[in-house]
Design goal:
The complex is a heterodimer of chains A (316) and B (325).
Chain A (H helix, E strand, L loop, with lengths): L6 E12 L2 E13 L4 E5 L6 H8 L7 E6 L2 E2 L5 H10 E4 L13 H11 L4 H14 L16 H13 L5 E5 L7 H18 L2 E6 L2 H7 L2 E6 L2 E7 H6 L4 H9 L5 H6 L30 H5 L5 E2 L5 E2 L5
Parallel strand pairs in A: 3-8, 3-9, 6-7, 7-8
Antiparallel strand pairs in A: 1-2, 1-4, 4-5, 9-10, 10-12, 11-12
Helix pairs in contact in A: 3-4, 3-5, 4-5, 5-6
Chain B lengths: L4 E12 L2 E13 L4 E5 L6 H9 L7 E10 L2 E2 L5 H7 L4 E4 L3 H4 L6 H12 L4 H14 L5 H4 L9 H13 L5 E5 L7 H18 L2 E6 L2 H7 L2 E6 L2 E7 H6 L4 H8 L40 H5 L5 E2 L4 E2 L2 H7 L1
Parallel strand pairs in B: 3-8, 3-9, 6-7, 7-8
Antiparallel strand pairs in B: 1-2, 1-4, 4-5, 9-10, 10-12, 11-12
Classes of the chains: A alpha/beta (316), B alpha/beta (325).
Chain lengths: 316, 325
């Protein structure tokens, strides 16, 4: 029997009760993530990608479905057992400034997970030095405060903290979206170096397809809380199957003026429907250029379409 | 006919307790009718302050225009009074910003906001302004325009608010439009819609457009010509194809190499630019990029390179000058 995947989601649902009604932020998502793999998760605002990432760390309540980590169901763990989970799964956020305590030194913030895990003082000090070195921060960063660092350096601090307990999986929630181009490349390279060095896996959440395409082994596309396509990075670019994936790729600006002019593209009309009142049938049918009667009535399931690609479309 | 916008030696400084910083240092650029010039660079390079300087909308204090000319349809607007500028803004030159939500008045219906622009600058009465607003909203692709006239900004999505801002900016057919990161806050499919809209409106009216962005993908999709800024100065200018095919300045080359192109063969590593932009109050004596430059020479640390002509543009770099000779 082969080892279970590092992470396995089955029919995961996350709902939020709001004043305006129930938002089905994540609605029946299933996928596996292998050890050592980087899975990219893309979609537009409100598609549920960040909520999904947080659900994996149990930072939002799960309505139903299972999340297995190394084969163990973590979706119903009680609070004391969550500490163990968070040793294995960590998260880094888009805004490193908002996720670091401005009154704590960098050393204190990076040491926090180690203290919670009950490490000895001396071991903590040594580990923090190692972590700061790994992420390319100067040794004196320990005594300094977050405001003394640039955005890219703060993201390095967040990465150091996430690495502290040698997690198996790091959920990266838009980790480079707030960074300038030149610094963004530095952080992407750092994440790739750390993966090679430590074999950590990433769930890399981003709205930026070109970044995801660069870093991910496979790409999952979400729309209105559902997974609409999952495929290898090469397949997703060369042969996208779901009309929404095609639309996203067509909309993504290409940093090559000749290629940008040469491509034929259809710009998707309309905007995302309200997640409070998602369309019946296929969630994408209201904007889909090829929707038929069936799409309005029947919700398509994810199904294999060869070469490891899965798509949830009646017409793909 | 005069060039719609011609900026010469524009300089804007920040007067702070820590001293005077040159945020925009001698920027010159011109934009022809129907032309789009992209102003590119990373945070703090002075691209947004350049736009605000041109519009005379600088936050003072700390920012103040300290030199240069801004010729709008042939007339230098720098010496003009604020009263004269009020008449020019919205009529001869329009501007749209990154965050449409915070640029719109949250407590006024959108119709009133667009109509106000029309009534300020034209002879239209209240009823005519409302009818014209309806037309404008349709022109910018507002879905259900008629029904949305009396909507408030919070009832609209970010994309729709940006359409309202665009309607306001083009209401009086300005000859120049400045768009400061107009799609940065939008989702990618909505971004594509707004970029297509701006292109269409520009082609219809022959507007000169300055498009400010940090996103090289957006540059490649929209610009005719590109001005690259670094630490307050223009370091390169070239037609868009030239710039991407043969960037002369090592900073431009670095930016392009650091931007992943989807569908390109997978490179194991992105080329990154080490270090970061120096703070404006600690700019070195020589080239501001020297400390990060892969091609730095002894001379670059001592002496600041001036802009010199290339085949189709300009570059401020000693290494690029050497390549050319």
């Amino acid at each position: 029997m082969s080892a279970p995947p590092l992470l396995s989601l089955a029919d995961l649902h996350v709902r939020f009760d709001t004043a305006a009604g129930i938002v089905r932020a994540v609605s029946g998502v299933s996928f596996d993530l292998a050890a050592g793999e980087t899975l990219g998760l893309v979609g537009e605002s409100g598609c549920g990608k960040s909520t999904l990432g947080k659900a994996i760390l149990r930072l939002v309540p799960i309505a139903s479905g299972t999340i297995r980590l190394d084969g163990t169901d973590i979706s119903s763990l009680a609070r004391p057992q969550l500490a163990e989970l968070r040793r294995k799964v960590q998260i880094i956020f888009q805004d490193p400034y908002g996720s670091l305590n401005p009154r704590s030194t960098v050393g204190h913030s990076v040491a926090q997970p180690l203290r919670i895990a009950g490490w000895e003082r001396n071991a903590i000090a040594e580990r923090v030095d190692t972590l700061l070195r790994w992420v390319g921060l100067p040794a004196d960063a320990r005594q300094r405060y977050p405001h003394e660092f640039s955005g890219g350096q703060r993201q390095r601090i967040g990465i150091a903290r996430a690495l502290a307990l040698s997690p198996r999986l790091i959920v990266c929630d838009e980790p480079v979206s707030a960074l300038d181009v030149s610094v963004r490349a530095q952080v992407i390279n750092l994440l790739e170096d750390l993966k090679r060095q430590f074999g950590v896996s990433y769930l890399f959440i981003s709205h930026d397809l070109s970044v995801v395409e660069h870093i991910a082994d496979r790409v999952a596309v979400m729309y209105l809380g559902t997974l609409v396509e999952l495929a290898g990075r090469d397949q997703i670019w060369r042969a996208p199957r779901h009309p929404y994936t095609k639309a996203l790729l067509a909309a993504a600006p290409i940093a090559d003026p000749r290629a940008a002019r040469a491509r034929q593209r259809t710009i998707l009309p309309g905007e995302l429907p309200s997640p409070l009142d998602p369309p019946a049938g296929c969630p994408f049918h209201s904007r889909c250029p090829i929707a038929e009667e069936r799409c309005r009535l029947e919700k398509p399931e994810l199904r294999p379409l060869g070469e490891g690609t899965l798509a949830a479309c009646h017409l793909a | 006919m005069a060039v719609p916008l011609e900026v010469t030696g524009l300089s804007t400084s920040l007067f702070t307790r820590r001293g005077v910083m040159k945020a925009v240092d001698g920027l010159s650029l011109s934009v022809g009718a129907g032309e789009t010039v992209a102003l590119v660079g990373e945070s703090g390079c002075g691209k947004s302050l350049s736009a605000l300087s041109i519009m005379r909308l600088l936050p003072d204090p700390p920012a103040r225009l300290v030199g240069g000319e801004v010729r709008l349809n042939g007339r230098d607007i720098v010496p003009l009074s604020e009263k004269a500028m009020l008449d020019i803004r919205g009529r001869e030159i329009g501007m749209i910003f990154q965050d449409p939500m915070s640029s719109l008045n949250p407590v006024a219906p959108i119709e009133a906001q667009v109509a106000e622009v029309l009534m300020t600058h034209t002879e239209l009465g209240r009823g005519q302004a409302r009818a014209r607003t309806h037309e404008l909203l349709e022109q910018v692709g507002m879905p259900d325009a008629g029904r949305r006239l009396d909507a408030y900004p919070h009832q609209l999505s970010g994309g729709m608010c940006q359409r309202v801002m665009i309607a306001m900016a083009i209401a009086c057919n300005p000859s120049v439009l400045i768009a400061d990161e107009p799609t940065t806050a939008l989702d990618v499919t909505v971004q594509a819609q707004v970029l297509a809209l701006l292109k269409r409106l520009q082609a219809e009216a022959g507007m000169a457009m300055i498009f400010i962005t940090h996103d090289l993908g957006v540059v490649a999709e929209t610009a005719d010509r590109v001005v690259v800024m670094y630490a307050g100065r223009k370091v390169e200018e070239a037609p868009v194809d030239e710039l991407f095919e043969a960037p002369r300045h090592p900073y431009t080359a670095g930016l392009i190499a650091a931007t992943p192109v989807p569908g390109a063969p997978r490179a194991t590593r992105l080329a990154d630019i080490p270090g970061m932009v120096p703070p404006l109050n600690e700019l070195p004596a020589g080239c501001a990029f020297a400390a990060r430059c892969p091609r730095v020479m002894e001379r670059c640390r001592r002496e600041r390179p001036e802009l010199t002509p290339t085949r189709a543009g300009l570059v401020a770099c000693f290494a690029a000058e050497k390549d050319a000779s």
